[in-house]
Every structure is written in structure tokens, then in C-alpha cells.
């Protein structure tokens, strides 16, 4: 088989790979487990994620992406190589073309780092596209018409908000508050309130099962286990949705404010379109209970959660790959 086109959603929390003609072929956590002394990679993705918080002292599970950008270049490259080998991207006669997504406000240096990592992992041509634009396309928006579309993409490391028209971003904002921050708020709340230490995975479970951002929107309880900070022994506590609501209020208010700021900078004609069409939320954060209702209330426009919000960016890369030859792309020269 000759060159294949590959779309990569290189997220802070997860990496998704879309191969043209096949759809999404990989969806794994962006985690690398390394041996401390030799710096040797022990495991990548799902296997490494299972090790988070459960490894002996000489093995550490790290996330090479932070806030949507590369925090650890070598391990990002190793992770990409591993995933591309896993989906058989290298068994082709010619190297694949890769379309990769990044947050809206990253610097040209950070863009170059992403492209370099993709090229070193075995690509012929690397194209970069902004995440909210790709998320909007993947959510089914027709952003190539002369009308306003607004998307709020709440990922792991960043929340990207954009108003799009004629295939381009009109106004946008990217803030470093998203799913990871919610996990930290939950973790810190339980630490402060109950003097109990829990791991990131437990915090994430609480976010999915119990958390809500709508007052009184959910009345779930959950037993969680951790280590008592006073006795040092394991302990179980029960937490409720109401408590978690309190702990997330501040973080969520930053996302609401960022969305308001984008709307305030939007030309009036496009604002009128957004009132008619509504706002679409994508990314893992879109699944946080009550998020659509809260944004609807605060922004005074209808807010809808996309179908399969976590797959929107990867699906969007697939649609753009179909038109890769036709649509002019930003290719960053190194």
C-alpha cells in the first residue's frame, strides 16, 4: 500500500489516531512508563496508564504532554512512534502524511516541537491545524459557510473556544483549565476536607460518577478509598455530588468567563447566527454532568453536547484528510 493519510489528536490526556478510510483505529491514554535510572520506556498508553500510582519506586508513569503542548520531547516522540507502529503506519512503501491538532494559542516554537516529534516518528509531511476548528468539523458543523459557528472544546489540558466562519477562526481563546484541573480540584478538596489522600485515577472516577456543575443537578453518593493523612492507614469515605459541585465551581467559572469573552469579541452578525444555531461543546469535559445546562444559562444561547464528544477532533481530522489536497493547510517549515 502506498502512502496513507493519518490524523492525530495529540491530547494531554488521550491520543487518538484516525486513518483515512478506516476511521479511528487507536484511542489510548497519553502516558509513558519509564525506568527511572536507565530512562528506558517500559510501557506506553493503556498499559502505562494502569501503572499510574501503582508502580515501584524505580518506574514512573509520566504524561509527556502538558496543557496541550509537549512537556517532554523525547517521550512524546517515543509515544508517537509506539502508537504509529501499533496501527501499522510504518508498514507502508512511502511515509504517511500526518495531520495533527494543537490548541489555538500555542507559540510557533511549540508548533515546531509537535511537527518535529511527528516527523521523527516517521512522517513525510506534517500538517498542523487548530483544535477547535477540527473539533467543530468533527461535530458536524459546516464551518465553510459565511455564517457563525461556535465551539467549546474542553479537553484534558486546555479548553479551546472559537467562533468560526468561512473555514477560519474569527475569535478564539484557549485556557489551561480543563479535565485535568477538575481532577486536581476534586483531589485537593478530599485532601483538605477529609485529610484523605487519593490518586488521580480515583479523582477521575469521582468526576465521571458523582461530579456535577449544576446546583442540585445530581444526587449521587460514592464510596472512595485512600490513605488517611493522620494515621497513614487505608480509609473509606462517602462523598456526594453536592460536595464535588462546590469544589468545581471556581474552575468552571473560568471556562464560562472565557466563553463570554469570546462572544463579546464576536462581530454582531455572527453573534446572531450563534443565537440561531447554538454552541456545540466537545471533548471529554463536555461529558461533565450539567456542563451544557450551565453554559446555556450563562451564555443565554442554546448549548448542545456533540455526539461522541471525545472523538470529535479525531473525526474532524478524518474529514480534513479527505480534503487534504484541496484545502490549503498551514505547514510549518522547520
TrEMBL record:
<dbReference type="InterPro" id="IPR056546">
    <property type="entry name" value="MreB_MamK-like"/>
</dbReference>
<dbReference type="Pfam" id="PF06723">
    <property type="entry name" value="MreB_Mbl"/>
</dbReference>
<dbReference type="GO" id="GO:0008360">
    <property type="term" value="P:regulation of cell shape"/>
</dbReference>
<protein>
    <recommendedName>
        <fullName>Cell shape-determining protein MreB</fullName>
    </recommendedName>
</protein>
<dbReference type="InterPro" id="IPR043129">
    <property type="entry name" value="ATPase_NBD"/>
</dbReference>
<comment type="similarity">
    <text>Belongs to the FtsA/MreB family.</text>
</comment>
<comment type="subunit">
    <text>Forms polymers.</text>
</comment>
<feature type="binding site">
    <location>
        <begin position="284"/>
        <end position="287"/>
    </location>
    <ligand>
        <name>ATP</name>
    </ligand>
</feature>
<dbReference type="InterPro" id="IPR004753">
    <property type="entry name" value="MreB"/>
</dbReference>
<comment type="function">
    <text>Forms membrane-associated dynamic filaments that are essential for cell shape determination. Acts by regulating cell wall synthesis and cell elongation, and thus cell shape. A feedback loop between cell geometry and MreB localization may maintain elongated cell shape by targeting cell wall growth to regions of negative cell wall curvature.</text>
</comment>
<keyword id="KW-0547">Nucleotide-binding</keyword>
<feature type="binding site">
    <location>
        <begin position="12"/>
        <end position="14"/>
    </location>
    <ligand>
        <name>ATP</name>
    </ligand>
</feature>
<dbReference type="GO" id="GO:0005737">
    <property type="term" value="C:cytoplasm"/>
</dbReference>
<dbReference type="GO" id="GO:0000902">
    <property type="term" value="P:cell morphogenesis"/>
</dbReference>
<keyword id="KW-0963">Cytoplasm</keyword>
<dbReference type="GO" id="GO:0005524">
    <property type="term" value="F:ATP binding"/>
</dbReference>
<feature type="binding site">
    <location>
        <begin position="204"/>
        <end position="207"/>
    </location>
    <ligand>
        <name>ATP</name>
    </ligand>
</feature>
<keyword id="KW-0133">Cell shape</keyword>
<feature type="binding site">
    <location>
        <begin position="156"/>
        <end position="158"/>
    </location>
    <ligand>
        <name>ATP</name>
    </ligand>
</feature>
<keyword id="KW-0067">ATP-binding</keyword>
